[in-house]
Amino acid sequence: MKTRLFTVCVLFFCFVAPVYADLKDGLQAYYCFDDCSAKDTSGMNRNGTIFGAPVCVNGKIGKAMYFSGNQDYIETGYSQRNLMSYTISVWVKLTDNNEGGVVFQNRGPLYQGGTSITLMTTAILPSDGNRYPTRFVADTDNKIAGVNTNTNINNNEWHHIVGTWATPSGSAIESGNFKLFIDGNKIASDVEQGDNRIISPINGIGKALIGKHEAWGNFFRGSIDEIRIYDRVLSDIEIKQLYQDARSGSGKVK
Questions:
Q1: Which of 134, 155, 163, 160 is nearest to 243 (CA)?
Q2: How many CA atoms lie within 13 A of 238 on its CB side?
Q3: Among 36, 71, 107, 138, which lies 20 to 30 A Cα-Cα from 216?
Q4: Using alpha carbons only, what angle is made at residue 135 by residues 180 and 214, rounded to the nearest 5 degrees?
Q5: For 176-199, what is each residue's pLDDT tens digit?
Q6: Three-state SS at 58
Q7: Other CB atoms within 10 Å distance of the CB of residue 149
Q8: Beta strand extents in 81-129 (DSSP E only)
Q9: Domains of the chain by range and CATH?
């Protein structure tokens, strides 16, 4: 929730009180999984379709989805089209170093020209056999820009991950346009930047996917809960509030 401060004075004593903005502002999709479906509860009616057999489990708030890493994914009703600013907020639970992968992306198949703002947790990608850290990037064919971190989240605990990005239309997307937060705190991330630049806006192919990246050949393994997608950059205060609300159990859209 976006916080504004105002001063209240009563009998010569002043204090500063927080005023919270509506976190529905800019919300484009919200998959909470509480009814064990891929229903979008943002009010935008971007309901998803479940493929494979992800299992409905206890989540950070209510229910979550556990993906096996073997053909389990969700095709959402949301698309990254003409995208110039973006926030993704999600809770993940990974039990060990064999779990993780691509959480959310919209690039489409390899060599089809699609671009995506992609969030993944640490995982081995079948496309090249290398292990990658948690990363928040813009990616397309032979081009990438963004940030990553080796912060350990594979410890059988729920962790809140938020990525924010904005680049004006017609401008090259730079790694400095990205921010990554874990458990309410901004992470001092390493930079990923190829020699060739992706130009804003982002335009994905088809619908965004939860738990699958076609071009990288990756399926997510682990639990995912409370995915929120915004078409704006949330402030540090709003991100902290999302984290604190979920910890207190009051984290539904307000």
A1: 160
A2: 24
A3: 36
A4: 135
A5: 999 999 999 999 788 888 788 999
A6: strand
A7: 18
A8: 85-93, 102-105, 116-120, 123-124
A9: 23-248 (2.60.120.200)
